[in-house]
Amino acid sequence: MAKSIVCLQSLTNEQEEAIRKAAPGFTYVHSDAKQPDLDALAEAEIVIGWAKGISDCLLREGTPLRWVQAWSAGVEKLPLDRLEQRGIVLTNASGVHAEPISQVIFGFMLMFVRNLHTAIRNQDRHIWNSDGTETELTGKTAVIVGTGEIGGETAQIAKAFGMRTVGVRRIDDPLPGFDAMYTTSRLKEAVTRGDFVINTLPLTDETRYLFDASVFSAFKEGSYYINIGRGGTTDTEALIEALENGPLRGAGLDVFETEPLPEDHPLWDMKQVIITPHVAGLTDHYSDRLVDIFTENMKSYLVSGAPLSNVVDYRRQY
Fold it and tell me: What is the CATH number of the domain that holds 139?
């Protein structure tokens, strides 16, 4: 029986041809994620993407599935325990998002320091006004919690703006682009240094509600919080309290505990908050970059039976 790759995402003809060329000996099959072809999935050795209702078909004993390429960097919505039990290799889309998300981060920061969020609201009401609090990024400190592809790209750009950079991750070994590094266990100490605290974390058992009331209380007075990681890493009620009663001056939020954000949620009406609907990672280059990751990994898969990059560690959940 021919080996097959089933893709649950819509790709261009050129992208599909790139996959076919990288995978000699494999049949390429496209399946609609909204109405997945379960018969095709049951015969797949490699699956690109994921869809509701396919777990039992894919993960029952005896299927040829060996590798799943997730379409996102975060994999918390996939059945990680079952994938691990079956010995399936899972790779994610880490690296695809670095450019667009870092640009959103700087969009938030520039809006805050130049009061552009206020100017837009004033424009809607035809008001010519400035409160005189405009400043700049030069000399400010960005505390970047999560120093992977997105965090690293953000740090490099921050240096070009003349900012100081502080990283927070599981180990405190130095990394290029960062002036200082803290372990996650020292998060409360790290955030005291930040004019901006930027959360790029995935959602795992360790990061869920990591930003709680005790952490927000340690923030520098007048600082800003930016979350483009996962909403579940943040205690929303504690965030609102920090925005209303200090120390936060504002927040740029792309992700939320509940999505879509309910229409009656208090965050909508907070003038010091900028909200985007979980689109920081979206870009017209997304599929091209994901296909590049997959085809590069296909080279090692054909030689050794396993991809080498973007492999998810099931213990860490990323």
Answer: 3.40.50.720
**One of 17, 136, 189, 259 is an active-site residue; which one?**
259
In a domain, 120, yes or no: yes
278 catalytically annotated = yes
Which helix (H) or strand (E) is 223 found in, with range? strand 223-227
Number of folded domains in the chain? 2
> Could you tell me if residue 123 is inside a domain?
yes
Does residue 230 have an active-site annotation? yes
Q: Indicate whether 173 and 47 sit together in one domain.
A: no
Say how many C-beta atoms besides its own lie within 10 A of residue 61's C-beta. Answer: 5
Which regions of the chain does DSSP assign to beta strands (E)?
3-7, 26-30, 46-48, 67-69, 89-91, 141-145, 164-169, 180-183, 196-199, 223-227, 248-253, 273-275
* Segments forming the whole domain that contains residue 218: 98-275
Active site residue 45: no
Tens place of pLDDT per residue across the chain (318 aa):
579 999 999 999 999 999 999 999 999 999 999 999 999 999 999 999 999 999 999 999 999 999 999 999 999 999 999 999 999 999 999 999 999 999 999 999 999 999 999 999 999 999 999 999 999 999 999 999 999 999 999 999 999 999 999 999 999 999 999 999 999 999 999 999 999 999 999 999 999 999 999 999 999 999 999 999 999 999 999 999 999 999 999 999 999 999 999 999 999 999 999 999 999 999 999 999 999 999 999 999 999 999 999 999 999 999
Tell me if 316 is assigned to some domain.
no
Catalytic residue among 82, 164, 278, 289: 278
270 assigned to some structural domain = yes
